[in-house]
Design brief:
Largest sheet: none
Strand content: under 5%
Helix content: 55-70%
Number of strands: 0
Length: 145
């Protein structure tokens, strides 16, 4: 299970950059399978490091894990495309170092508190909750004024 999506990659790096990195056919457009494979490989690498300290699969995915997944996937796409830049390499190395620190117990990945999962399930973005005080003035009260 990938920890980031194609949309996450585009949001962070832009459509042009991801199209360049994920283009394997020379059309100028990213290959969705190539990008998905890079994201899956990044998730597998992350799981390999953090699986000794954290219960897998991670649900919901912490922001730090999503960002690590993006950095690793971009690095892999850039290496495969021959477009590796220094900042991509540095972000990848920083991500791997952080994962090593998690595996050693030096760093942690924030986990949701037990009550957080229930609260987020109750207040989903699809539901609307309206809570108000009882009405003080209505048509009938205002007519008497």
């Amino acid at each position: 299970m990938a920890y980031a999506t194609d949309t996450d990659l585009v949001a962070l790096h832009g459509t042009d950059a991801i199209d360049r990195l994920g283009d394997r056919t020379g059309t100028g457009v990213r290959d969705p399978e190539t990008v998905a494979r890079a994201l899956d490989d990044a998730a597998a690498l992350i799981d390999g490091y953090i699986g000794v300290r954290v219960a897998l699969p991670l649900a919901p995915v912490p922001a730090v894990v999503k960002n690590l997944s993006i950095d690793i996937a971009v690095y892999r796409l850039a290496v495969d495309a021959g477009l590796l830049a220094e900042d991509m390499r540095k972000r990848y190395e920083d991500a791997i170092q952080f994962l090593r620190d998690v595996a050693r117990g030096v760093a942690t990945i924030p986990q949701p508190k037990p009550g957080d999962a229930v609260a987020s399930a109750e207040a989903s973005p699809q539901s609307v909750v309206i809570d108000a005080a009882p009405r003080l003035f209505g048509r009938h009260q205002l007519r008497r004024l």
